[in-house]
């Protein structure tokens, strides 16, 4: 009965609207406007996402509205009146309605050439191998493709967009990821600083400060549908990198209060008591499926019988997304307490993760240092104390003497999770251990690398050893983890771990280089089983770009560019051989350099 809704239909519709609006929180009305009713939850979002009009569910929630949210919602109600109550409109009709009322994704950006871009940053001179030098030069040039500047209209009419307005242009990961991502930015900013794009890096940091000011923390990415969860908190380490690179201590002093505010958010909203220690876990504050993966979340949750179970499932998915490792067997706990299973076994909120606690240790330590620059002794001492408390927690809850390494802790079964995850070694990255234990830890780590055969993979250290089909599992290898492993092993200041670090750096740069030569692209993830192979699996297509992969290569070339080469590198046979290989590599590359 188009155009003539009966009283009954009207009542039903009101009830339905009530259903969508009544329970739970979908976004924070203090930080998100009426656009949350379109992009974060409700009948419009559900109808469009379930119709599967685009291959990638993220496409729709990134499209700009042609009219304001209330007008759009009204137009949608009018559209739905053409169909029987309870029936779903045909896919073609939904697609047409969306095309009539939304703009294609990506219209919020304008052309931008960073004013601090330079074709030949000094890092190039440090790289002795000609092929690697060319590689670095190409990667430096890719920043131009990954830059995004918002049009003024986003600031003037934020309600028409899902994107969160920020003042300064950003470098994004690439592919489907058109907006800033929180933890990605750590490796992107390291790369930018090596490319001497200091203004761009500083602009991104200032964006983050304004975001903490507005939201109280940093969302997963720069869209309102990410605004109820964060990602591994690396803003403070980003600022530390910036301050160390530029020598600009004033920047540390002027930003320390905002960094402390973000740290306090993690302390108050993300911690639980475990064995008498305050430990951090991942979580999410919103109800319902992830708007950007709405259909996927409904599908994986379809076998749960009760609303509460489905809601729990959504929370676990979003908590895993907050970890940045979406998804991984790392977050599965099945009925037997092991890591086999699928997304219905996600128990992210019941797992104490190694890297998160080590990162918070790092945050507190840096914040203490910055308060020292400011001359605020009270806060300098306070944050040092926080860092010591995290260190104690990491030792008591996460260090596992039997395994000889740090392990995630399962709060359901009250036991360590003795599975390999690259993050098991993450405390090495920020030196989250007592200095007196360094040598002991180096011995344990060497043993662990041998036991787990971490040195046997031609394409890099796998994320886990379990092949679940999820993208943060075997055989995928991710740049940020290769970076933290290499830096962590180097930090141990032990000849053996230093040799492994160098070998892994050689392998990683060489593999990325091979893939780049073959395809002309940098990838979001690579393959452990093949030097130069790139990864797959998970819930979306393989992405190219790619911000953090590029940043990591530049960082490794900055550290090892005088020794590693495009032609060498081998696999396996730790210790003696690795040391020998490193020496030979060094000699060969010096020879090459002098010829
Ligand atoms: C969507 O995916 C299908 C199957 O993978 C593919 O054939 C099609 O070209 C894709 N459509 C678009 C618009 O990318
Ligand atoms: C942190 O948790 C408190 C209390 O649970 C809540 O009121 C507040 O909104 C949360 N903060 C943020 C930024 O989500
Ligand atoms: C939902 O999750 C909470 C927290 O993990 C748990 O205590 C509760 O039993 C779960 N409820 C159901 C119905 O699964
Ligand atoms: C749990 O253990 C039982 C008994 O060994 C087995 O039959 C079952 O398949 C296991 N469940 C999972 C999810 O591994
Ligand atoms: C784990 O410890 C908690 C808190 O001490 C306790 O409530 C729970 O029953 C324990 N669970 C198991 C499986 O032992």
Describe the structure.
Keywords: Glycosidase, Hydrolase, Signal. Its EC number is 3.2.1.28. GO terms for molecular function: alpha,alpha-trehalase activity. It is an enzyme of class 3 (hydrolase). With 595 residues, this protein is mostly helical. Among the domains are: 33-61 and 64-103, no CATH class; 435-595, no CATH class. 50% of the residues lie in helices and 5% in strands. The chain contains 22 helices and 12 strands. The protein has helices at residues 7-22, 36-39, 43-51, 58-61, 69-80, 91-101, 123-126, 130-146, 152-156, 184-194, 198-215, 235-246, 249-269, 294-300, 307-323, 354-374, 377-398, 438-451, 479-491, 495-519, 547-560, 576-594; strands at residues 109-110, 147-150, 170-171, 271-274, 277-280, 351-352, 399-400, 405-406, 409-410, 415-416, 476-477, 526-527. A 3-stranded antiparallel sheet has the order 1-2-3. A 3-stranded antiparallel sheet has the order 6-9-10. The chain has a two-stranded antiparallel ribbon with strand order 4-5. The chain is globular. The termini are far apart. Mean pLDDT is 92; it is low at 1-22, 569-583 and 588-595. It binds 2-acetamido-2-deoxy-beta-D-glucopyranose (5 copies). Residues 334-336, 340-341 line the site of one 2-acetamido-2-deoxy-beta-D-glucopyranose (NAG).
């Amino acid at each position: 009965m188009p155009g003539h809704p009966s009283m009954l239909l009207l009542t039903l519709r009101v009830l339905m609207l009530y259903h969508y609006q009544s329970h739970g929180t979908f976004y924070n009305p203090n930080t998100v406007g009426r656009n949350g009713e379109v992009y974060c939850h409700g009948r419009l979002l559900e109808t469009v996402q379930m119709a599967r009009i685009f291959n990638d569910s993220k496409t729709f929630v990134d499209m700009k509205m042609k009219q304001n949210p209330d007008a759009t919602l009204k137009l949608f109600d009018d559209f739905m009146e053409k169909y029987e109550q309870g029936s779903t409109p045909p896919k073609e009709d939904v697609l047409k309605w969306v095309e009539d009322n939304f703009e294609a994704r990506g219209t919020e950006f304008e052309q931008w050439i960073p004013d601090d871009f330079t074709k030949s940053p000094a890092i190039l001179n440090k790289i002795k191998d000609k092929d690697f030098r060319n590689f670095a030069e190409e990667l430096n040039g890719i920043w131009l493709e990954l830059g995004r500047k918002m049009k003024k209209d986003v600031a003037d009419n934020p309600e028409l967009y899902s994107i969160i307005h920020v003042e300064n242009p950003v470098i994004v990961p690439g592919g489907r990821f058109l907006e800033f991502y929180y933890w990605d930015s750590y490796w992107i900013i390291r790369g930018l600083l090596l490319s001497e794009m200091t203004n761009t890096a500083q602009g991104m940091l200032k964006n983050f400060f304004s975001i903490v000011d507005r939201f109280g923390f940093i969302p997963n990415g720069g869209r309102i549908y990410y605004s109820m969860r964060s990602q591994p908190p690396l803003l403070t380490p980003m600022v530390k990198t910036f301050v160390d690179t530029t020598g600009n201590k004033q920047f540390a002093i002027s930003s320390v209060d905002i960094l402390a505010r973000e740290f306090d958010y993690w302390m108050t909203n993300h911690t639980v008591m475990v064995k008498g220690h305050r430990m951090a876990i991942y979580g999410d504050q919103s109800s319902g499926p992830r708007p950007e993966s709405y259909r996927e979340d409904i599908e994986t949750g379809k076998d749960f019988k009760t609303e509460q179970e489905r809601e729990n499932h959504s929370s676990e998915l979003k908590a895993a997304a907050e970890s940045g490792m979406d998804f991984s067997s790392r977050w599965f706990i099945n009925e037997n307490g092991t890591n086999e299973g699928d997304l219905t076994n996600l128990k992210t909120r019941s797992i104490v993760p190694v890297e998160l606690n080590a990162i918070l240790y790092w945050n507190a330590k840096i914040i203490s240092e910055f308060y020292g620059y400011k001359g605020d002794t009270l806060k300098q001492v306070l944050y040092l104390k926080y860092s010591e408390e995290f260190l104690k927690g990491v030792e008591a809850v996460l260090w596992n003497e039997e395994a000889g390494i740090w392990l995630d802790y399962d709060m359901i079964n009250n036991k360590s999770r003795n599975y390999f995850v690259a993050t098991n070694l993450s405390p090495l990255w920020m030196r989250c251990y007592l200095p007196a234990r360094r040598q002991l830890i180096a011995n344990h780590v060497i043993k662990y690398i041998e036991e787990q055969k971490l040195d046997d993979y031609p394409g890099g250290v796998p994320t886990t050893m379990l092949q679940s089909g999820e993208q943060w599992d075997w055989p995928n290898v991710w740049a940020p983890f290769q970076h933290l492993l290499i830096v962590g092993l180097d930090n141990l200041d032990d000849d053996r771990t230093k040799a492994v670090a160098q070998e892994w750096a050689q392998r990683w740069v060489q593999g990325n280089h091979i893939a780049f030569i073959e395809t002309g692209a940098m990838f979001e993830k690579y393959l452990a089983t093949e030097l130069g192979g790139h990864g797959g699996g998970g819930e979306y297509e393989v992405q190219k770009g790619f911000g953090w992969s590029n940043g990591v290569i530049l960082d490794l070339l900055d550290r090892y560019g005088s020794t590693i080469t495009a032609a060498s590198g081998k696999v396996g046979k730790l210790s003696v051989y690795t040391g020998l290989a490193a020496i030979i590599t060094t000699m060969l590359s010096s020879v090459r350099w002098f010829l």
